[in-house]
Amino acid sequence: MLGDFDFTGYYRALDGVRIGRGMNWKQVSEATNVGQSTLARMGKGKRPDADALAALSAWAGLNPADFVPNATQSNDRQDTLAEIYSCLRRDPNLSAEATAAIDEIIKATYERLRRKA
Hints:
mainly alpha
């Protein structure tokens, strides 16, 4: 069974893309044609309409299905840490040393906070 859409996780990912691109929310609004008021409401936990979600997802390269528990699980899904490291390596804003430093922080945090089976 599918879970509820993780709006908080989606918004955090969207904010991460915004920060990574060095943009403010006004610039995101202009780039996506999503109103600043919609973005402000999202910052307060209100969900956008389908058109805004689609526009923001396309701009950010996010798949909303990735934020629905059990929607994307499959046997061939990569390990979470491997996916994160792969993304870090592709980021042109990070040196090899910065990538390694962030990777170490993420690994340590992940080990500390992950649910134990």
